[in-house]
Amino acid sequence: MPEILNSIKLLQANNKLLNSTKEKDQKKINNNNSFDKILNKTIEEIFIRFSSALRTAQIYEPNNLAFIEQLSPLFTSIRNILANEGKAVFQFQENTLFFNKNRVKFDYISYHNFKFLADEFRKKEIGTVGFEPGLDDENLAQFIVLLANSKAEKENPFEDFQTNLENKEINHIFIVKTHPYEIATKMDDVQVKQSAKNVFFKSMTHMKESFNREKQHKKIHLKTSRRLIQSIVNIISQDESFMIGMTSIKNYDDYTVNHSTNVCVLAVSFGRRLGLNKEELINLGLSAFFHDIGKLEVPKEILDKKGKLTKEERKTIEKHTYHGVAKLINLKEFSYLPVNALYVALEHHLWANLSGYPKYWKRDKVNLYSKIVKMCDFFDSITTERPYRKHVLTKEAALGLMLAKSGTEFDPVLLKVFANMVGVYPIGSLVALNTGELGIVTETNPEVAFVLRPKVKLITDHNGNKIDGEIVDLTEKDPEAEEYKRTIVNSLDPNKYNIQPSDYFLAQ
User: Fold this and answer.
1) 437 inside domain
2) Residues 214 and 333 in one domain
3) Per-residue pLDDT, 28
4) Are 243 and 196 in contact (CB under 8 A)?
């Protein structure tokens, strides 16, 4: 008990220190707030308008009203920036978007715009797009139409696009090729998926080794942990959907190890949609990775008990949050852990309304990372078979249950982001199509109008025969009938059909 109390006191002392530092810096921040708010609002508007205009140009002709309505305010915003700063430059560096060297801070609402713009730049190996004084709306329109409709060639995508730009005689707009290092390290889809699998299983192996070393009172290699989380962050920035699909893997014999890895992947994906920067994502990933380390103090016969827990057994399990904080503080490489990891270990069973446990934790709010990890922890847990759980929920049912607890157990704003990430039909779900085919959801659709139309890998034909089918986009229409080729009828429980969704991600 003294060890537990010391852990809490250390957290409280650290919190006071952070608050003191914040107060000292507040005056400096307030002085620049007014200017920053105006600039950030303008940058955000240009970013959203640019991606929206580009997306619209892929669908409509340049003289269409929908395109004109996106172009006009975009041109006005760019012209205003040029008048004030003399330049308007978009630049991608390591999956981060900058505008005039200011990092574009996107939120969950504009996440799909960021992803879309990043993908379009990446396809053509464009690292920078700049607009110069003298730009007119006609040149801007021509550039966006060209960017939207030029197919990226495999050999020299940037050079081909630059040639087209020169041939069109588009002035006052320049482009710069992506840095050679980023191109050299760029992986194709097959390589990304293979790397995702390697990193995922290396993470599980490292987690198992870390737990074993902790039991033997040996040093946990947190430098290695940090490098692995950094790799997870990098892979998610390239193929979030596939990495989330890997969390369909469920190792029942090594539940805590597998669960911790899954929660880490989900949390990093979640944090990215919230607009956290790379360092913040790594810290969030580390916090999620070790959130259940305190369970090493809980006897296995209690963790895996099939029947109902006694009051004493319940108390023993609930103490794992305190044990987690104590263990993290005592790690020899503790300096490699973010302070937030301590909060997550302690708070990941606290509800949004501050019920849950630990019940006597005196705080008026819960740490952001703790809220994120709690959702990911709950989602992965109730979709995994356990000795004490008779019924395993499908991912759709799990999300439905979470939405029913919005405002009480889960923060309602964050839950909306989480629901958007996993989708109405979460990645890894088994679905039945109106064609009689069965499929596994491989990627959600970020567009509000198409949330019910994800990408699906076909695993049976219309007669029910198992196949290694293609991945189809459910937004695709039959040009003659002008109807969608396929539509989801309902979701199915894969266990009833003896189907393991994870097999389809591992096979890719």
Assistant:
1) yes
2) yes
3) 47
4) yes
The reply to whether 72 falls in a domain is: yes
Pick out the chain residues at pLDDT < 50: 1, 28-32
In contact, 411 and 352? CB cutoff 8 Å: yes
DSSP characters over 305-337 = -SSPPPHHHHHHHHTHHHHHHHHHHT-TTGGGS
Alpha helices in 124-239 (DSSP H): 137-149, 157-167, 180-184, 189-215, 222-238
Count structural domains, the chain: 3
Give the phi and the psi of residue 322 in degrees, each rounded to 5: -70, -45
Between CA 354 and CA 141 the distance in angstroms is 52
Determine contact, residues 475/430, Cβ cutoff 8 Å.
no
Cα 117 from chain centroid (whole Å): 16
pLDDT tens per residue, range 384-411: 887 777 678 889 999 999 999 999 999 9
Among 134, 166, 184, where does a domain finish? Answer: 184
3-class secondary structure, 242: helix
pLDDT tens per residue across span 52-63: 899 888 888 888
Q: What CATH code is carried by the domain that includes residue 343? A: 1.10.3210.10
Domain ranges, residue 391: 189-422
Token pair of 71 as six digits: 């172009």
Nearest C-alpha neighbor of 287 from the set 245, 241, 336, 252: 336
DSSP 59-119: TS-TTSHHHHHHHHHHHHHHHHHHHHHS-EEEEEETTEEEETTEE----TTTHHHHHHHHH
DSSP class of 46: H
Query: Residue 152 burial by CB count (10 A; 0-12/13-18/19+): exposed, middle or buried?
Result: middle
Residue 252: helix, strand or coil by DSSP?
Answer: coil
Distance CA 410, CA 403 (A): 8
